[in-house]
Every structure is written in structure tokens, then in C-alpha cells.
Amino acid sequence: MDPQAIEQAVTVLRRGGLVAFPTETVYGLGADATNAEAVARVFELKGRPGNNPLIVHVAGIEQAMALVSQWPATAEKLARRFWPGPLTLVLPRNDVIPDIVCAGGPTVAVRCPDHPVARALLEAFGSPLVGPSANKSGGVSSTTAEHVRASFGDRVQVLDGGPSERGIESTVVRIEGARATILRPGVVTHEQLAEVADVEAYEPVQGADGAGPMPSPGMLKKHYAPTTPTRLFDRTQRRAVFDRLETGDKLVVISHGIDADHPALIRMPRDADGYARELYAAMHRADDAGADAILIELPDAEGQVWSAIRDRLRRAAAG
Ligand code: AMP
Ligand code: MG
């Protein structure tokens, strides 16, 4: 990355402006996390409800510790093992970060991203940045600079760091004293977390539909969703779905399992990491095709990031 582009971005951020930046998970819409007005612009541009808190991106453990009122041993262990990386920690906060970032709640979410451009930006800025996914609220996350431009046009500067390597959002873990709970499944798996600390598995909240108090907005049922109606199918329906394509139904099919070629079939990698990396780009492509519906095969494999992938697919097809 051109150091001049980073410098220019820092100038924009210091003035309270917004800059989209690449991370290893998805592209973030960056703003000075200590500037309430700058953060308000992020909510406005995304159309994000004010009760959905933002993740604060930090350069390292020290910067994270400056934002919290407790840094339990579990936080230290997890941060040492997984930072920089796709793990977000939710902790009791102090008053360094304005209320708007945390949706007025008593906790703050912190993460140290693992991407050379994100790190260079955080280093040069010298202070934490909010960085929700750089797309309209509820829509499909951006994993390329083109996706960001498609959402926001020229309204934000985009630092182009190429396609995001991991492709889906960070794992969010809440830490309360010795207790740690997964609030949102993500790239870091429960098995990986459990090697380092006693972390409770993710429990999807049934019927979380955005009404009433939001325990964690990642739990919103419909999220990461294309605008085209989206439905899921399983491996027993491969033949039937492919037949519908061949009879000319205006569909786009996303599948890692159908072993055939068709212009309206987006074939996905069969390995979990590859699938995650390409998932949102596939959803963007499918959405842009102007079909009547998108049909996505729900992978049934266990382990790795498959459960996080299923979580995103179910949300894409919810509602
Ligand atoms: P996004 O940046 O769009 O990936 O969304 C950030 C997600 O982080 C939210 O949807 C929540 O799931 C989670 N999050 C951020 N801040 C908090 C917090 N203070 N407490 C609980 N979850 C949070
Ligand atoms: Mg998002």
C-alpha cells in the first residue's frame, strides 16, 4: 500500500471523516472511535440502527486495555493467542469510547485486525477506529473494494487491499470475569478457543428478530442478506434444483456440491476456508444477476468454519 494513501486516510479520519479499509475478515467502514460525530456519520451512511453497537479496532493489546474497565486473565489469554486476528472481545468499558459506539451499553467490543493495510492505518492513526462492515446495514458484507464502492460510491475513500482473505466476520466472545461466551460464530472456531480458555459455545437465540432489546445484534435473524429472495436447499435436492435451472427458471444457484456447469450456477470451493473466502462475493454476484430467487446449498460438513458459514447462510435466507 502506498504510504501516501495511508497518510491521506489519516488526515480524513482526523477531520472526523470516514475511510473504508480492508481487514482479513471483511472491509470495514472506519472512523475515529473517540469522536462521537464521526461515529454518528458511520451509523447514518450505513443506515444502521442505533441499538447495534460497533466493533472498535485497535493496534494491539495495550490500546484495547485503555478502553476497558476490566481485562480478565481470559481476555489476556485469548488476545495473546488470536491477535492480530479475527476474534472480537466484548468487555466492560470505561468512558474513553463515546456511548454511541456501544449503543449506550456497559460493554465495548474490541478487535485487533490482521491485515497489513488495517495495521498500517491503525499504527499511523495512533488511536482506535470503529470498523463495521463497509456496506448498507443488513446487506451483504463487502469483501472487496468494488463491493464497498457499489454500496457507497464516492462518498468514502476506499483503501484497496485486495479481496479479504478470510471472508466472513470475526468471532465475537463476551468476557465476564472468568466466564467467556461466544455471541457470534466466526472465523475462529469454538475448538480453537477451547484450546486456550474455557469458552461457552454459541447458542443461537430463537426468534431474535430485532424487536425488543438486542442481546447482541449479530443475533439479528435477518442480516448479511441479498435483496433477491434467498432460499436454502440440502444435498438431497441437488438434482431437483439443477433441473429447475435447466428448465429455464430465473434462478441463481450457489452450490459447493452440484457437479455440473451452468451459467446460473456459482460453484463454491469444497473446503471451509475457501468457501468462507468466496461466500460474500458469490452473494453479491448472485444478487446482481437480477434473478427471481437465489438458491444456496446449505453445507452439512462439521468442524472448521462450517458452522459460521451456516450461520451466515441462515441469516441470508431469513425473513
Ligand atoms: P459488524 O461490525 O456489522 O460485523 O457488527 C458488529 C457486531 O459486533 C454486532 O453485530 C455485535 O454482534 C457485536 N458487538 C459489537 N459491540 C458489542 C457489544 N458491546 N456487546 C455485544 N456485542 C457487540
Ligand atoms: Mg455487518
The sequence of SSEs as H and E is: HEEHEHHEEHEHEEEHEEHEEHEH
Strand order within the widest sheet?
Answer: 7-1-2-6-3-5-4-8-9-10
- The residue-averaged pLDDT reads 94
Structural class: alpha/beta
Strand content: 15-25%
The span between the termini is: 40 Å
**Rg:** 19 Å
What ligands does this structure carry?
Answer: adenosine monophosphate, magnesium ion
Residues in helix, %: 25-40%
Largest sheet: 10 strands, mixed
Count all strands and give the number.
14
Give the number of helices.
Answer: 10
Shape: globular
Oligomer: single chain
The low-confidence runs, each spanning 5 or more residues with pLDDT under 50, are 207-214
How would you sum up this structure, described in words?
Strand 9 (179-184), helix 7 and strand 10 (199-200) form a beta-alpha-beta unit. Helices cover 31% and strands 18% of the residues. It has helices at 3-14, 36-46, 61-65, 73-82, 116-125, 145-152, 190-194, 238-246, 272-288, 306-316, and strands at residues 19-21, 28-32, 55-57, 87-92, 107-111, 129-130, 157-158, 171-176, 179-184, 199-200, 230-233, 251-255, 265-267, 293-297. The chain is built from ten helices and 14 strands. The chain is globular and about 60 Å long. The chain has 319 residues and is of the alpha/beta class. The model is unreliable at 207-214 (pLDDT under 50). Strands 7-1-2-6-3-5-4-8-9-10 form a ten-stranded mixed sheet, with helices on both faces. Strands 11-14-12-13 form a four-stranded parallel sheet, with helices on both faces. Helix 1 (3-14) crosses helix 5 (116-125). The longest helix has 17 residues, at 272-288. It binds adenosine monophosphate and magnesium ion (MG). Adenosine monophosphate binds next to strand 5 and strand 9.
